[in-house]
From TrEMBL, chains A, B:
Keywords in alphabetical order: GTP-binding, Ligase, Magnesium, Manganese, Metal-binding, Nucleotide-binding, Potassium
Iron-sulfur found in the keyword field: no
Taxonomic placement: Bacteria, Bacillati, Actinomycetota, Actinomycetes, Micrococcales
Manganese keyword on record: yes
GO MF annotation, one: metal ion binding
Name listed for the protein in its UniProt record: Coenzyme F420:L-glutamate ligase-like domain-containing protein
UniProt cross-references to SUPFAM superfamilies, sorted A to Z: CofE-like
Coenzyme F420:L-glutamate ligase-like domain segment(s): 21-220
Pfam families: F420_ligase
InterPro entries: F420-0_g-glutamyl_ligase (IPR008225), F420-0_gamma-glut_ligase-dom (IPR002847)
Length: 279, 279
């Protein structure tokens, strides 16, 4: 595969599929296998390159596979908190906060592109997995590259899924424009762009779900690649007090109603007692 | 700007910033101005190219500007339904469903990158705007290109914003993998990729919020570009019965509590009346 011609970094980006990565098994050195594929592809790694790595192969390398007859139990075990659930013809969709702090369907437990009869859990700590990969590949190629680990997430209010970054090492996950000004000299209103999620999405466009190509190389975004590997994608998880959607609407209506009923019942009894006392 | 060398479409994509688009005013022909910029840039439009156009310049061309002292009123006027609102030091964030059917903060009313003292509303019908642009540019360049109109959206459960597609013409917005199989021959679990949103995100990485470059050209995704211009991004809006987050948690708790309180109060009174009758 030939290189792109030189180009203005701020003006362009290119995304390559890194082909030739074999089926991954527990205990494999992912850094070595991705490095070999990069080298064989003719894509010489460069300063500022970002590798987007599908979480699935990280999970496989880390031995996060389970027997499939445990799938519902696995989801339950990976769940820290149920956000919402809904029955549909194919079963029940559970949207939960998982151990990684991500709110997603089925806690990220995955049954596609895995050996028959097994499911895969997400890496225990995707940011740590990204750091380990970045260390290996920076040492091997002698350049400052960044790693994003991606997973496929559904979204509230929008159909379909998009890829997002669940692990990062050496890649700034947010482009913080707070305090910046626009071309009219006014303060920017939209202030924090989740660039790691945008990069993961761009990577998905060449990796593809059905293609079996699990790694994309993104070139042209060196401005987001930093020396430090401590750039956790976990910072993109919004849970806690600023989460306006910590419970699904039906769940919150039911919880509110139960609370209100108890309060109203007590108030009704008290009102009746006062009325009886007055008469 | 030189062209990319020939490459395997499925293996790579490239994103270019389309520079040289002037400040847009009401009544400007956006198709003509984008076409001129494309031509001047040396980026010869090709079959399968996708132009990602920031909604802001579409709004400007369509004269969707209002005086800024009307901003809160403008948000209210653009709101079909309030999903959630939250007070914070800078004011109140309102997440609403707007006239375009999109759930987003401030109904998409925008005060950055606009002339001082004005705000911009979203295009009335971004899919229609995309169709009109696609017709102009297909006629001019004689190639089958696609148009996406992008806007910046916040997300539930994730920090920061990403760009998404709010208008589409000639670009399939969803890559429907239902019925597909993975490399193990198993049915794919993740079935509908919102590729239009992923492409809008990729475009944002070269357009940039503070750069004033409002259009990106995405090359290499011709498999999503179709002859028909009837490929509405509106189909990506999920509202109605399948929306599990039609109300914010606090709002739903409050609504449920009020309902429950009324029911409980009546039940408390009734219980007291029965007890009095029995005694």
């Amino acid at each position: 595969m030939s290189d792109l011609p030189e180009f203005e970094v701020s003006a362009r980006l290119a995304v390559y599929a890194v082909e030739g990565i074999p089926e991954i098994g527990a205990g494999d050195s992912l850094g070595e296998l991705i490095g070999d594929a990069l080298q064989a592809s003719g894509l010489a790694a460069r300063d500022g390159d970002i590798l987007v790595v599908t979480s699935k192969i990280v999970s496989k390398a880390e031995g996060r596979s389970l027997r499939a007859d445990d799938r519902e139990a696995a989801i339950t075990a990976e769940t820290v908190r149920v956000v919402a659930s809904r029955a549909h013809p194919g079963g029940v969709t559970r949207i939960v906060e998982n151990r990684q702090g991500i709110v997603q369907a089925a806690a990220g437990v995955d049954a596609s592109n895995t050996a028959a009869g097994t499911v895969l859990l997400l890496p225990i700590d995707p940011d740590a997995s990204a750091r380990s990969l970045a260390e290996d590949l920076r040492a091997r190629f002698g350049v400052r590259l960044g790693i994003l680990i991606s997973d496929t997430l559904g979204r509230a209010w929008r159909e379909g899924q998009t890829d997002a970054a669940i692990g990062s090492a050496g890649v700034l996950v947010v482009d913080d424009l707070r305090g910046g000004v626009d071309t009219f000299g006014q303060r920017l209103e939209v202030t924090q762009i989740a660039v790691a999620d945008e990069i993961a999405a761009a990577g998905d466009l060449v990796k593809g779900k059905a293609s079996g190509v699990p790694v994309a190389l993104v070139r042209g975004l060196g401005r987001f690649v930093v020396e430090s590997l401590d750039t956790p994608a976990r910072a993109l998880n919004r849970t806690g007090p600023t989460d306006m959607f910590r419970l699904g609407t039906d769940e919150a209506l039911a919880e509110g109603r139960a609370r209100g009923y108890a309060e109203g019942y007590a108030a009704g009894l008290a009102a009746a007692a006062r009325a009886a006392a007055d008469s």
